[in-house]
Amino acid sequence: MSDLSFGSILLVVVVSLFTAAAAVWDLRYRRIPNALTLPVFLAGWVYQGAFHGWSGLGQGALGFALGFGMLFILWMIGGGGGGDVKLMGALSVWLGFHLTLLVVILSTVLVVAGTFAAVLVTMMRGGLRREIEKRSASNSAVPGAIAVDRMQQRRMMAYAIPVFVATWLVLIWKLPTLP
Q: Has residue 115 been placed in a domain?
C-alpha cells in the first residue's frame, strides 16, 4: 500500500469501514441508518473535489447516477430497501462510475448466487412449497405502503453484505490502478 497516494489510501479506508459498518448494521437490524449514509455521502463529494477536482466531481455524479439510480428503481418496484438505495448512493460518490459499475455487477452476481443457494437449501429441506406459499401469501394484493413493507419483509438477504463483499473484492482487484 506504500505506493498508493494519500487520496487512494483515504478512499480504501473510508469505503472499507463504511461498507463493513453498513453490512453489520443491515444484518443486525435489517436497516441502514441515515446517520451512517449521509455523512459518507457528503464526505464523498469533498473527497472527489479535493483529490480529483472537477473530473472527480463528474465521476462522483456519474457513479451516483448509476448506483443510486439502479437501486432507487429496484426500491420503487419493491426489490430492495431504502437503506440499500442510500448505501449505494453514498458509496458510489466515493467510487465513481467505473468502480460503481463493477460493484453493482459483482453484488448482483452475489445476490443471485446467494438466492439460488437459499432456494436450494430450502428445497433440500423439503420446504419449498411451504416457502412459496408463505411468500405468495405475504404478497397478496395489499394497497400502498403496506405492500411495500411486506415486500421488504420478504427479502432473503441483507443487501449490504453482497455490496460489502463486492466492494472489497473490487478494491483489492483495482488497488494497483487507483489514482
A: yes
Is 23 among the domain residues? Answer: yes
Q: Rounded to whole angstroms, how far apart are CA atoms 76 and 82?
A: 9
From 43, 55, 35, select the one nearest 15 (Cα to Cα).
43
CA 39 – CA 51 distance, rounded (Å): 18
CA distances for 90 relative to 19, 46, 149, 172, angstroms: 10, 12, 23, 20
Which residues span the domain enclosing 28?
6-177
- Residues 6 or more apart whose CB falls under 8 angstroms from that of 23 comprise 158, 160, 161, 163, 164
Residue whose entry in the numeric block shows the C-alpha cell 452475489: 110
Q: Is residue 75 part of a domain?
A: yes
User: What are the pLDDT digits (tens) for 51-66?
Assistant: 999 999 999 999 999 9
Domain count, the chain: 1
pLDDT digits (tens, 9 = 90+) for 84-124: 999 999 999 999 999 999 999 999 999 999 888 877 777 77
Exposed, middle or buried: residue 158 (CB in 10 Å: 0-12, 13-18, 19+)?
A: buried
Residue 175 has pLDDT above 90, yes or no: no
In this prediction the pTM is 0.80
Q: Phi-psi bin for 33: left (phi > 0), alpha (psi -120 to 50), beta? A: beta
Question: Is 1 within a domain?
Answer: no
